[in-house]
Structure formats: structure tokens, C-alpha cells
Design goal:
alpha+beta, 5 helices, 7 strands, 21% helix, 24% strand, elongated
């Protein structure tokens, strides 16, 4: 029987390795289910941008809307307050409102730091009705402006008036007016309060 033992190859210890050994050593690679995974300490490609500089593409700005923003809080139709004319109020998802009347008051914020802002308007028709308009604008071309509008008709036969009168009867309060309808539509946010102040102190709650 042979007493020969298999020849064992010894790897030089870290202390005995020279610079040439480290340079010749390939980057560590592990095979997991047939996929090669590189050493996590390996540096990324030189042409890859840093993570902190990877930003989303900038949105395209509409020059026309940017001009409107630059005029805030002034609006294009501020000079038409109290002027009787043919009006068209745009509504999304519904027929636009066409009537003869005057713009009673309007309000817009002093600035739009995020490129978006709202515009509030109140009209009065020659027939004694009131129209409330809320427009949301954006300076970015890919964003569509939104338009909301409602009509308050004080006539008892009108549906909105009937609904409001029913609420009045249940609550046993004073008769509801177009001012109550305005508050129901605009609420009491900062811009709505600025709109109400232009109409005088009738929207304030007076206490004894």
C-alpha cells in the first residue's frame, strides 16, 4: 500500500503577501443560483451621477399663466367690478353659465410659491341671482386649470332655494340669503375672508 499523501497547496498568509499578490487578486464574486453578485464594496461606474444629484425633470411652464401669476393679487377683470356686461362663467363637467350682470367682487392670493393659486369671484345677474366662481390655476403647462361655479336663485321655485329653505325650516333660523350661499360655496379660508371683506362687514358675525 502506498503511503503517499495528496499534495497540499498552501496559500501565503496575509503577512507574506506582496503588492503584486494584491493587484493580481480579482474582485470577489459570489454565485447565487446562477447569478453573479459583485462585492458590495466595489465602487459604482465613474459615469453614474451621485444620488443627491439625480433629480426629476423640470415641468414646462406656461408663459401666459406665468404672466397671470406675476400680477397677483391683481386679476385681469378687477377693472370690471360693477360693470354690466355679458358674462360667461366656465364650469368643468357642466354647461358654462351665460348671463347679463356685473362682477361684484373677486379675490386672489398675494403669491403662489408652489406655482398654484385660487381665484374667487361673485357675480350678480340682472335677474337678481348670484353666481359664485372658484378657479384653480397652475403655471405648469401640463396641469389643467379647474373651474367650479354655482348659482343662487332666491326664487322659491328654484331647487337650490328649496333646499336652503328646507334647511332653514329645520333649523328655525332666519331666511337664508345669497350671503349664506356664498359661505356654503367658498367656506371661511383665508382667501374667502379676503373676498368677504371687499363686500363690507355683512359677512362678519356680530355679537353683543
Amino acid at each position: 500500500m502506498s503511503s503517499e499523501r495528496p499534495e497540499q497547496l498552501s496559500e501565503p498568509s496575509p503577512g507574506n503577501r506582496g503588492p503584486s499578490d494584491e493587484a493580481a487578486r480579482p474582485a470577489a464574486t459570489v454565485l447565487v443560483r446562477g447569478e453573479a453578485i459583485r462585492d458590495p464594496q466595489q465602487t459604482p461606474p465613474k459615469d453614474a451621477p451621485p444620488k443627491d444629484k439625480q433629480k426629476s425633470p423640470r415641468k414646462e411652464v406656461s408663459e401666459a399663466r406665468l404672466k397671470l401669476q406675476s400680477r397677483l393679487p391683481n386679476l385681469d377683470d378687477d377693472s370690471e367690478v360693477g360693470v354690466q356686461k355679458e358674462q360667461i362663467v366656465v364650469r368643468d363637467g357642466k354647461a358654462d353659465l351665460a348671463f347679463t350682470g356685473a362682477l361684484v367682487a373677486s379675490a386672489a392670493p398675494t403669491s403662489a410659491p408652489k406655482g398654484q393659486w385660487k381665484e374667487y369671484r361673485i357675480y350678480e345677474t340682472n335677474g337678481g341671482k348670484h353666481v359664485f366662481s372658484k378657479v384653480t390655476r397652475s403655471v405648469f403647462a401640463e396641469d389643467q386649470d379647474t373651474h367650479e361655479a354655482e348659482v343662487f336663485d332666491p326664487a322659491p321655485s328654484s331647487v337650490p332655494s328649496q333646499l336652503l329653505r328646507s334647511a332653514r325650516d329645520l333649523a328655525r333660523t332666519r331666511p337664508l340669503t345669497w350671503m349664506d350661499a356664498a359661505v356654503s360655496f367658498f367656506g371661511y379660508d383665508t382667501l374667502a375672508k379676503a373676498l368677504y371683506r371687499k363686500l363690507g362687514g355683512q359677512f362678519e358675525e356680530h355679537i353683543g
